[in-house]
């Protein structure tokens, strides 16, 4: 393939593309940065003005609160109270000197507030005015000392009749000792009743108030307006504003008073001129970026074009070797190969998700009590299962089919089962999940948001399944169903009931002519899988799940209305499990065994149950106390991984150490702390229990060995004998 030069159109397009890629973001960023800076300055200025307006409002509110506090304190003064009395007790108890002291104290307090022109206490019933200058009749005071017009005097007279906690009136003009003033009257009743006998009347002097605002208001504002019910009662212009600011745009910030009905509007000038740095900075960046961007684009284009040229050379060689005609055919073939590999990978992912979903459904059948991880898995596979729904498990078995070892026959039966399940469940408008339990057994989990299956409906559905499967494949399966249960744990309850019915039918069929054979009658409900979960949760101190398991066992067995002897046997089995856990955790179980034995001898089932549950709680608390949160979290993940992957042949301490980035000894110690037993004993227990189920389903020993994680059949047989006490093939021959 010929060498590319700078005159190449591909190179030029690459160069222009890099130039655009580099410069356009810089220009856009510069403009946006300029805009952001302008808006940030405006925001900061507005926040500053808002804080300043709040400060001004707070300073005025503080003064108003001082007026309130003055009124409250004055109402508790003895001389005020005694002047209220309809007697001359005030004149009797206070001599002239004391009265002068009271008037001086009253005047000093008014002067200390800094915004009051003067203040008086009016006694409406006595028509008396107490002032810093002495006591006056109301009319004399209003005409000679503090002169108000007729309208204002009438407003005062009307306001004095009602209780006023803190009332600020509209500004009025007056003369105080012939000195003209503009004041804001403030009324505060000194008695909490209608028609109070004493009312404090204060007069805010607007000139004093203006001086106070100038001292505390700062200099940033243009104008301060105080309104009462949207009526302006006071206005202060910034003296330094001048005529130049009047032409500038302004905006106001409204702050409601927290001490009165006033509304403060503080006006600030708007700066319409942008800082030149906001323009010069981005322009300078753009000017510098253009030549630098062009140089960088040229270098990037050259670097990018070099591997492209090498690739085209290699493609040209491949084209000649493959005789495909052109490099485009080679590229097309490469893409086809990638698409094929992608499809294969997608299929592998789907197979994995299908297997994971089947594994989750199997755990639900066995009664795995949900934790956060199980909820995540339910959501991941979009099953939509919740604890508020209703469930029923149905078992479809082909054990009666003697040709079940034939792959074509079993495939035909599987297709027939899938078609029958879809047809029947669609007809009855029920949701379902169909999956394989063993080689010859299928399971259906039927779910609904509402109760279903009443009046023999489930038996009718099972009969329809049998008929449709027979019509499709010619084999009659055994179809059994459990009761409709609520909650996710109900799936396990329903499944075990259906499986019990299946085992009874299979036992009866296999011992049809053996009169001495019998199926052990177990009245109580205590599944092996629940026992394993109870042991695991005891060992990790999971009290909530343990309590849930015990509650479900109790509810299910109470529904069976067991005799006391059977209930006592069940509780004894539960207690034996807990004592076994205590021993595995190296905890002395003797005292617990003795105390339980005393309750068992007393034949008190409730006491036995309560003590058994108490021992479980003590174990969980002991385990949680002895393990740090970090150990519990790591140990829980370790245990969960083993529970999910124990059938893999490569599960080992070394593999776990690599996965969890720990040493082999650290993994062994942590596993022992979490479960109470060593790793290989725990792994053997899981594998042997699964192997027993598979052997009961008539799977070959070689097949079972590989399915539970043993690559060597001899190793499996030796482990099985050590665990169960008999050989695997002998166990498979035992009656079900």
From TrEMBL:
Which InterPro entries does the record cross-reference, listed alphabetically? Answer: Homeodomain-like_sf (IPR009057), HTH_AraC (IPR018060), HTH_AraC-typ_CS (IPR018062)
Q: Is tRNA-binding given among the entry's keywords?
A: no
Membrane spanning residue stretches? 15-35, 279-301
- Membrane as UniProt keyword: yes
UniProt keywords, alphabetically: Coiled coil, DNA-binding, Membrane, Transcription, Transcription regulation, Transmembrane, Transmembrane helix
Q: Which residues form a coiled coil?
A: 328-355
Record-annotated HTH araC/xylS-type domain positions: 636-734
Please, which domain of life does this record's source organism belong to?
Bacteria
Query: Entry's SMART domains?
Result: HTH_ARAC (SM00342)
Sorted alphabetically, which Pfam families does this protein's record hold? HTH_18
Identification of the protein by name: Helix-turn-helix transcriptional regulator
Q: Which organism is it from?
A: Cohnella soli
**Taxonomic lineage:** Bacteria, Bacillati, Bacillota, Bacilli, Bacillales
């Amino acid at each position: 393939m010929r060498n590319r030069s700078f005159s190449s159109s591909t190179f030029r397009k690459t160069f222009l593309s890099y130039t655009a890629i580099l410069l356009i973001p810089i220009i856009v960023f510069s403009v946006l940065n300029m805009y952001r800076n302008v808006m940030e300055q405006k925001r900061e200025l507005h926040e500053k003005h808002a804080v300043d307006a709040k400060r001004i409002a707070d300073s005025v509110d503080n003064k108003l609160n001082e007026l309130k506090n003055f009124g409250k304190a004055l109402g508790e003064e003895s001389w005020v109270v005694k002047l209220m009395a309809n007697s001359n007790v005030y004149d009797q108890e206070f001599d002239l000197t004391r009265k002068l002291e009271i008037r001086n104290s009253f005047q000093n307090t008014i002067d200390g507030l800094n915004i009051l022109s003067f203040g008086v206490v009016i006694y409406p019933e006595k028509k008396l005015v107490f002032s810093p200058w002495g006591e006056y009749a109301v009319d004399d005071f209003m005409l000679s000392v503090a002169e108000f017009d007729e309208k204002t005097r009438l407003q005062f007279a009307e306001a004095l009749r009602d209780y006023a906690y803190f009332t600020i009136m509209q500004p009025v003009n007056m003369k105080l000792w012939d000195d003209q003033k503009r004041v804001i009257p403030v009324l505060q009743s000194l008695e909490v009743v209608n028609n109070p006998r004493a009312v404090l009347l204060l007069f805010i002097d607007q000139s004093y108030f203006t001086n106070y605002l100038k001292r505390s208001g700062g200099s940033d504002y243009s104008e301060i307006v105080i309104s009462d019910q949207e009526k302006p009662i006071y206005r202060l212009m910034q003296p330094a504003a001048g005529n130049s600011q009047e032409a500038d745009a302004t905006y106001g910030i409204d702050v409601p008073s927290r001490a009165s009905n006033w509304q403060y509007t503080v006006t600030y000038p708007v700066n319409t001129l942008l800082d030149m740095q906001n323009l010069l900075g981005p322009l300078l960046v753009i000017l510098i970026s253009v030549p630098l961007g062009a140089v960088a684009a040229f270098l990037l284009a050259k670097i990018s074009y070099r591997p492209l040229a090498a690739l085209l050379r290699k493609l040209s060689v491949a084209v000649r070797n493959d005789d495909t005609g052109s490099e485009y055919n080679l590229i097309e073939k490469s893409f086809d190969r990638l698409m094929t590999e992608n499809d294969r990978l997608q299929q592998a992912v789907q197979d994995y998700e299908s297997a994971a979903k089947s594994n989750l459904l199997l755990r639900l059948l066995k009664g795995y009590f949900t934790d956060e991880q199980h909820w995540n898995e339910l959501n991941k596979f979009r099953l939509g299962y919740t604890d508020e729904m209703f469930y029923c498990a149905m078992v479809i078995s082909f054990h009666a089919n003697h040709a079940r070892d034939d792959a074509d026959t079993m495939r035909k039966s599987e297709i027939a089962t899938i078609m029958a399940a879809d047809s029947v469940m669609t007809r009855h408008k029920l949701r379902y999940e169909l999956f394989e339990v063993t080689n010859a057994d299928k399971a259906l989990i039927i779910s609904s948001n509402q109760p279903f299956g009443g009046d023999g409906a489930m038996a009718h559905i099972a009969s329809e399944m049998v008929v449709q499967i027979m019509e499709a494949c010619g084999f009659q399966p055994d179809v059994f169903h459990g009761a409709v249960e609520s909650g996710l744990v109900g799936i396990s309850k329903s499944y075990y009931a259906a499986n019990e019915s299946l085992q009874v039918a299979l036992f009866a069929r296999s011992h049809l002519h053996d009169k001495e054979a019998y199926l052990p009658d177990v009245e109580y409900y205590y599944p092996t899988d629940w026992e394993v979960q109870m042991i695991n949760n005891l060992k990790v101190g999971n009290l909530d799940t343990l309590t849930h398991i015990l509650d479900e066992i109790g509810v299910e067995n109470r529904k069976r209305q067991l005799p006391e002897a059977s209930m006592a046997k069940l509780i004894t089995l539960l207690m034996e499990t807990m004592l076994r856990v205590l021993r595995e955790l190296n905890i002395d179980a003797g005292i617990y065994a003795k105390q339980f034995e005393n309750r068992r001898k007393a034949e008190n089932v409730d006491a036995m149950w309560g003590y058994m549950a108490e021992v479980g709680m003590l174990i969980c608390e002991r385990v949680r106390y002895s393990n740090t949160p970090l150990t519990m979290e790591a140990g829980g993940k370790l245990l969960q991984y083993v529970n999910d992957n124990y059938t893999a042949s490569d599960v080992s301490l070394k593999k776990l150490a690599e996965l969890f980035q720990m040493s082999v000894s650290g993994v062994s110690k942590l596993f022992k702390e979490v479960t109470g037993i060593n790793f290989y004993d725990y792994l053997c227990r899981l594998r042997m229990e699964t192997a027993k189920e598979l052997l009961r389903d008539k799977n070959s020993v070689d097949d079972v060995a590989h399915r539970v994680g043993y690559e060597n059949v001899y190793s499996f047989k030796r482990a099985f004998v050590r665990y169960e006490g008999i050989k695997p093939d002998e166990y498979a021959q035992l009656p079900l």
